[in-house]
Specification:
The protein is an all-alpha fold and 101 residues long. It is built from three helices and no strands. This is chorismate mutase. Its EC number is 5.4.99.5.
């Protein structure tokens, strides 16, 4: 099935196919993002360096600004990024511990 851009969809089957395809792309992008968390866990000098509240705020602000620029709900994006960053920190801490035994 051809995946149509949202504005061109005329049936829910087309919408669902587009959403499903996009979800697969998003998961692939998340896998790439978590590979950076693996690198961070390997590079950071100590466990205390994993949580960086200033960087967390910057990442969420960047996502919020991108949402505004793209015309999508900035509060929703900020909430998603809050969860994404916290999940990334938890993942990075676990990887940090696993790498150092």
């Amino acid at each position: 099935m051809t995946i149509l851009p949202g504005p061109q969809c005329t049936t829910m089957t087309e919408v669902r196919a587009g959403v499903d395809a996009l979800d697969r792309e998003l998961v692939a992008l998340l896998a790439r993002r978590f590979a950076y968390m693996d690198a961070a866990a390997r590079i950071k000098p100590g466990r205390e360096a994993v949580r960086d509240e200033g960087r967390k705020a910057e990442v969420i602000a960047n996502a919020r600004a991108a949402a505004v620029a793209m015309g999508v709900p900035e509060d929703v994006v900020a909430e998603l990024w809050e969860r994404l960053v916290e999940g990334s920190i938890a993942y990075e801490l676990a990887r940090f511990d696993a790498m150092r035994g």
